[in-house]
Amino acid sequence: MRTPIPGRVTPRVAASTEHQATVAAHLTKRDRWIARLCAEHRTLTSTQIARIAFPSRRAANHRLQRLHQWRILDRFQPYIGRGRAPMFYVLDTTGAHLLAHEDGIDPRELHFRAERSIGIAYSLRLAHLHGLNSLFTGLIADALAHDDRNVTAWWSEARCARHFGDLVRPDGYGRWREADRQIEFFLEWDTGSYHLSRFVAKIPGYLELATTTRIVTPLLAVFATAQRESHARPLLAEHLRAQPRPQDLPIATTTVDDLNRAATGSAEIWLPLAHRDAGRARLIDLHTAWPHLGEPIASAQTTTNTSEASPVPRLSPPAPMPPFAQHDLTWKPSR
């Protein structure tokens, strides 16, 4: 007979120091990284977590089940009408308290509420978040399979808003390295649920940011369908031409289908706005379309692990790549 699966601890137990001390002794670097990813990026699916942190889906599901029992993470499975959606994981009470202690924060000052964390299950932004996080987890999985590739920055929408929100609010910011080349980018993810003019209206903000910082950062746009992409490109080009310094905002586009087929955003899926005849390019090769684009400059502003000064206590962001060695645990990415 199979051993019954232990039940979850109650919310009251999850907030107790006794439970947290017991669980803390059993958490690995991988567990803590996953919890911090869920805190920063709000939710990740079992599929996304398995790609970037486990050797197999079975291993991932086994460990995620344990983290769920301990209330490090909570989970939900949205209804999709046909087939079965993967489990979506969010930070839970014990996880929030343990991460707070790691950062030297009184958990009470975080004002963490488990019901607010799981509330993303009912949000219209769930599909948007899932798409954004799929692109970045795909890049991480790609980097894990190649020694010369690396994700050196992955910023959430909330973190972008804290840094750039007075001018523009990107959906995300990232930096990708292959061999000795790097490219940084802002990301906009289109779900097809709003008018394209809303996206186009963000262009002046991006240009003002480039003028203020004197840093030209490309904008990558992922559209819900090929039809949306074909409609958006002339609108973006027309609006960009009307700006005083259009060269300060290089733009490349792709579609969700192209991204899903490639399984990684580093593939030959990006179509530069001003160089359509050259065809689609790999992410790292976009420099060819934009010769004026310089190499990213490492700074405190773009280092992911840099603590952010804030009057409100906030958890430190996670490292963009797994902070544990390949020989640790059961970590054996395919090569």
TrEMBL record:
Region annotation Disordered: where it falls in the sequence: 1-21, 299-335
Extent of Pro residues compositional bias: 314-323
- Polar residues composition-biased segments: 299-309
Query: From which domain of life does this come?
Result: Bacteria
The record ties this protein, via InterPro entries, to: Replic_Relax
Name of the protein in its database record: Replication-relaxation family protein
User: What is the organism field in this record?
Assistant: Haloechinothrix aidingensis
